[in-house]
Amino acid sequence: MSLISYLMYLIFSLSCIVNTIPANNKTLEYVDKIYEDNIKTAILFHADDIKATPLYPAAIPIFQKIPLVLKFDELYTDDANYYRAKIIHCNLNWTKSNIPDLQYLLEYNDFTIDEFEFSFATKVPYTHFTFPVPRVKLPGNYLLVIYREGDENDVIITKRFIVYDQKVNILGEVGLSTGVIQRRLNQQIDFTIDYTKYPISNPFLDLHVVLRQNHRWDNAIFDLQPTMIKEDISQVEYKHFNFENNFKAGNEFRFFDIRSIHFGGRNVEKTNISETQIDAYLYFDKSRGTEPYSYIKDLNGGYVIENSEGNNDFIESEYIKVHFFLDLKEKINEDVYLCGKFTDWRYEGFNKMTYVDVSGLYMCNLLLKQGLYDFTYCVPGNKENPTVLEGNHFETKNEYEIIVYYKDPMLNTDIIVGYLKII
Fold it and tell me: What is the pLDDT of residues 367-384, one digit of tens each?
């Protein structure tokens, strides 16, 4: 990093103003979101995952004995705040359903979060919370809501998760797009639903399908229509030819390693340690939009919290200000965002890249817990190709999910009767 670029970045950093959302201005959103700047690293994971990584989707079978667990940190706290949780059952489109709480929960919908630890010998002090998510009685979409005790409107975290009851059988595969041009840029999901063991009177109207790529909801394909129904053998086919079942293949993810603060990790140019904070400066990135495909083993946009110099990843890991630099030579018309599972795939002010005229660089900094992170640069304003800075290659290794919903006439809501993960 040149001295001029470094000085320009210092000026950029000083000009950034962090705005914490006042509690009375919060609006509950049915999405994955952290509502305050001092709340970090909210991970919803399977309880049997000893590393507590968000590498797996927040999806469990209805009879799963091992629950989901939420972990999160509150920064700069000497005493722990008190938080509570509630669970909201949602329809297919992630709006609140009309089902009473006690119809999908085993107990009253008000849960105390009473398991917490204080960070140990970290420059940024924090309280680390753990909350095992209570089991539910019905399959479907759910929103976990964390709020300050005494005020349900003072929301700090929302997390989506799904619970499925495997009533139908799904046969699916990832292949090349049927389009001549698209076949080198897209990936196509073809599948068949077999409902032999779960009779459905009108599968065309009662079954609904959602496709996800790398656990993302922001680019999910909702309510894909069937291409053929074979009532004699109780099968529904989804084999489209107009790209309705196509995803941009994207590229293997960029990544950086901040598991150590004393030894430089991959793609970290240098680390500065002061009395009050740690800064990690990544190497300059460039657009990969026109580069050929190159295989890199990645985390499909996920991340792992890990500290290579401590004994406890969750309370001994430091929070590091990570500085990102993107060299595009000139400013483009659309906004550029830093994205990955660690940003909840959101496009907001905190992860928006800022273009600095003097240096000709896009810059951003995020306070992240020690670990290994995947990321990518998104241009959501480019509707035709939001991955224009990364490129699209049919060879890219992605993970897909097929979620099958059934409109239950008795409950008058959508329940999940089929789930398949394709890697």
Answer: 999 999 999 999 999 988
